Amino acid sequence: xxxxxxTKMLNPELNLFEKIKIAHKANFHGIEPWMNEFEKISKxxxxxxxxxxxxxxxxxxxxxxxxxxxxxxxxxxxxHEIIFEExxxxxxxxxxxxxxxxxxxxxxxxxxxxxxxxQSIDYxxxxxxxxxxxxxxxxxxxxxxxKQIYNFKLCKKFLDHISHETTMVIDAYHLWRxxxxxxxxxxxxxxxxxxxxxxxxxxxxxxxxHRDRDRVMPLDGKIDLKVFAETAKKxxxxxxxxxxxxxxxxxxxxxxxxxxxxxERMVMIFxx
Length: 272
Prior knowledge:
Shape: globular
Low-confidence stretches: none
Distance between the termini: 13 Å
Strand content: 5-15%
Order of helices and strands: EHEHHEHEHEHEHEEEHEH
Strand order of the largest sheet: 2-1-10-7-6-5-4-3
């Protein structure tokens, strides 16, 4: 496996170059950066830093609000064409840092922006075709707390309307949060997985009330991550696994110690 750390897991007071150095020292192979961290810095300097420290970037984050024409989520107007242009800009920036995919979120269900299944399929086809031309394809991540595409089966059904080559992110947390099992993707083609995401869920908080910031370090919670890893290995997946624990409590720790612990846990899950 190619182990990576989502840069949002590290203290936001650190810049991206500092996060790359921490990832390297903790023996990660790559990072998964957020758009607001790299859009205003030198892309050449970022690529050089990654090369110097042996760090890969294959996925960037994120496109949000595209399906439901909710421009606020990407700081633009609620207009489809303006949002589409913002998606194009984000794909082009992602190409500059070497990312093969940019993660796309489905419609969120708590922002009063209605969207239909059919409209979303049309929109995604347009986005997918654009990404192939630019060189950074959209990759869809189902979100467990939404109502439209909240589990693996719905995500596969949706993507199959576009092409049987489209990819998705499979996140252990969202499998759990969306009511699915850790082996839901046991028959899925590994080449259609852009990356895996891994984190755990607080044992004391119910699934319905669980929020992103309640995630905990892998193996500290109640998600059966061993089954998740075994499923990935059974289908022949051998690529990117990104740790993403968006819990502010982790920022209170020494960040290198925290990153090393996370890396140790990932190895325990996938290799022991």
